[in-house]
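From the shared-data thread, chain only:
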Amino acid sequence: MNTAEAEMDYFSITRRRRVSIDEEEERELEEYFNHSYIPLSNLPTPPLSSSSSPMMGLPKSTSDTSHLSAASSFLCRLVPQQQAKAEEVASFITRAGLDPNTVALAACILDSLSSSFVRNWRNACEKARSPEIPTFRSEPLKPELIVLGALAVAHSYLYDVCGEPKWWSDHVTNKAMEPRDISATTDCILKDIDYGLMSFTMEDLEEKKQDMLAKGEGVRSGKAVFMGGQLTPDEPSS
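Structure, as tokens:
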């Protein structure tokens, strides 16, 4: 083998090794993304500031519990033509660890539902429960499902994540509500508001936060601030 042939053979071997390494790295990257990738919500991306609020989290005192109760009661009053249970809604907020902006946006969504929403919602859920779809049980539709759907839509929008109905069913409702009902509810909510999530401004969210506190017990000033991630009365200085 002459010098030229030796050089060509060297570069050929080197190139094959580089290609092999590149293919291995590509496979490793693909495996990494397959395991770590979280699908986006496919909803319009909100302003960056919308996800900067502290988490509402678990109540740490009686006062914290009262703020959570005020927020959940406020959401229940916004459900059209239905009477939802505040205690159950409060458990949703707690288990999902939802922040004040998410709860406020859910309130905006509920307040925007049309008079025909409940009828369309029931029809959508009944269609999802078609006999063609096998099931072991079929629980009656509960109004709390509408609040849960609004919370799921709000969370998906603000954090641009795909809110899997199974996660909301298993971890947030303790399997009290079926994934297909949650999926049908979120779809129905989005259709009813014409996918108009971008129409809600941060000013709208702040207004809903104030309304939540004003409807709660023990509020003297009628205004609120957020301290430690909780709705807190803005007491006048003495």
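Strands lie at 224-227, 230-233.
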